[in-house]
Amino acid sequence: MPADDDTTSRAPGEPAGRSAEPVAPVVVPDAAPDVAADVAPGVGPVVAPGVAPEAPIDAVVPSDRVGPERGRVGDPVAATVGGPGRAGPTVVVKIGSSSLTDDRGAIDEAAVAKVCAEVAAARAAGQRVVTVTSGAIAAGLPVLGLADRRPRDAVTLQAVSAVGQSRLMGVWDRHLAAHGLIGGQVLLAPLDFAVRDQYLHARATLTRLLDLGVVPIVNENDAIADDEIRFGDNDRIAALVAHLVGAEALVLLTDIAGVLTADPRFDSSASLIEEILEVDHHMEALAGGAGTVRGSGGMATKLAAAKIAAWSGVRTVIAAADRPGVVADALADVAGVGTVVRPRSRTLNARKLWIAFAVGSSGTVVVDAGARRALESAGRSLLPAGVVGAEGRFAAGAAVEVADAAGAVFAKGIVGLGADALRAVAGVRTPDLPEGTPHEVIHRDDLVVLPT
Q1: Which residues, in sequence order, are bridge partners of residue 216?
Q2: Segment 293-304, tens digit of pLDDT
Q3: Cα 22 to the center of its chain, rounded Å
Q4: Strand, coil or helix: 147
Q5: End-to-end Cα separation, the chain, in angstroms
Q6: Where does 102-153 have alpha helices with state H?
Q7: CA 113 centroid distance within chain
Q8: In this structure, what is the dihedral angle of CA atoms 275, 118, 302, 189, given to the nearest 10 degrees?
């Protein structure tokens, strides 16, 4: 079916056909600081709660969605904030469990001390540093006598993390204090990246901590997370935090030199890949699963995080935590420091970054060829007339993949109708929709054409 304004999709700014009662139970954040391309003329700066009033605001981004969860039309979002005298670039340094713990699963004090010394050096060089640490579960395992038999059920892992988190923070605080630095614990959960108000509060808190000269120490709030405990094993969280704070670079510290041509556990000829311009299927195929019993991540999660960062305009360096001066070399872009993943020239805003990479799909919406052309080329919303069918069971507000009739997935979005309701109106033109039915299956603001 050919795409047209009345049946398949709607061009940006086209008012006709919007539902009087849009369905949007799942909320994702609006544009984030490093992708504030569209500045609203005549809109004055608004400072989020907790942000220093003297902090400069470079740009504001209006929301064009209606509804309390997305803000009223024209509701501005502060773009970038820097404290007086501390306007240097922000970097995010993440270190995983396998690099922070010994073979028994206990926290390796020397490893934490090394990272803290390198964070202090970066601070002295003028950088603002956010640290993302894994290790709460790993630190709790030996205390509970579980170091050699890691539990598999989420509830026990959450309990273990509660035991380990305080011990982990105590070590960080002690070694940062040796350099005259103060650490501030920030525990984040998936909703902190998904719900707009929580997203803004998280950004304001991190910004204020940096303005106060504090080193934020971020970890996932595993103890109360209501999603799977391996939300992103902190690699993905680190990438989202880098986007959140408008970081210049993301440094992922691990227990090997970087991305290798093969798994060194099975191939002694494996060599370092020093630069990646695009995280494609070939690169992803080189990555494996979790590397150690104490860590929940592996190179696959680091490449996934680097892909998120690249679409945020952030350069990523994957390098060995035990390399001397690794943070300084990573920030200076020293050749051979590890694997450098270059940022993309085109970036996604926070809403679309979340949809594309951070939320799982609950089903698939199948569309006709005309709808695919309109979505990919014209940036339009998906209307019921362009839908061929719906696969799976999903509710309104769920994330779904969008595929063509041949089964090729080319987009992802937040759907405005549940699966059953969508099947009932698939192929129906807008004027013929039952009263009260949302006119858009997926609004263009909630749709991401996936990178190839």
Answers
A1: 184
A2: 444 447 888 998
A3: 26
A4: coil
A5: 25
A6: 109-124, 136-143
A7: 28
A8: -150
| 8 A C-beta contact, residue 392 and residue 363 | yes
Output the pTM of the full model. 0.72
**Residue reference for tokens 């305009």:** 313
Q: How far apart are CA 183 and CA 115, in angstroms?
A: 13
The per-residue b/e assignment along 422-450, b for 16 or more CB within 10 angstroms, e otherwise, is beebbebebeebeeebbbbbbbbbbbbbe
For the CA atoms of 300, 243, 193, 175, the dihedral, rounded to the nearest 10 degrees, stands at 80
Q: Both tokens of residue 220? A: 């996932």
DSSP per position, 317-336: EEEETTSTTHHHHHHTT-TT
**Distance of alpha carbon 88 from alpha carbon 82, whole angstroms:** 8
Residue 85 has a CB neighbour count (10 Å cut-off) of 8
pLDDT in tens, 384-409: 999 999 999 999 999 999 999 999 99
Tens digits of per-residue pLDDT, 138-181? Answer: 888 888 988 888 888 888 988 999 999 999 999 999 999 999 99
- Per the listing, tokens 């199948």 go with 366
- Tell me which DSSP letter residue 39 carries: P
φ, ψ (nearest 5 deg) of residue 358: -110, -10
Q: Which two tokens stand for residue 434?
A: 């039952």
Q: What is the mean pLDDT of residues 73-79?
A: 30
Q: Is 367 helix (H, G, I), strand (E, B) or coil?
A: strand
Q: Count of CB atoms within 10 A of residue 293's CB?
A: 16
312 to each of 204, 300, 333, 377, how far by Cα in Å? 19, 19, 18, 22
Q: Which 8-state DSSP code applies to residue 259?
A: S
Task: State phi, psi for 355 to the nearest 5 degrees.
Answer: -60, -45
> Which among 54, 122, 48 is positioned nearest to 82, based on CA atoms?
54
How distant is the alpha carbon of residue 56 from its chain centre?
25
Q: Are the CB atoms for 188 and 221 separated by under 8 Å? A: yes
Fill in the amino acid letter for 401. Answer: E
Tokens of 412: 């992802």
Residue ranges with strand state E in 87-214: 90-95, 128-133, 183-188
Identity of the amino acid at 296: S
pLDDT attached to residue 288: 60
Burial 344-360 (b: 16+ CB within 10 A, else e): beebbbbbbbbbbbbbe
SS3 label, residue 361: coil
Contact between 421 and 396 under an 8 Å Cβ cutoff? The reply is: yes
Quickly count: other Cβ atoms within 10 Å of residue 44's Cβ: 8
Inter-axis angle of helices 154-177 and 136-143, nearest 10: 100
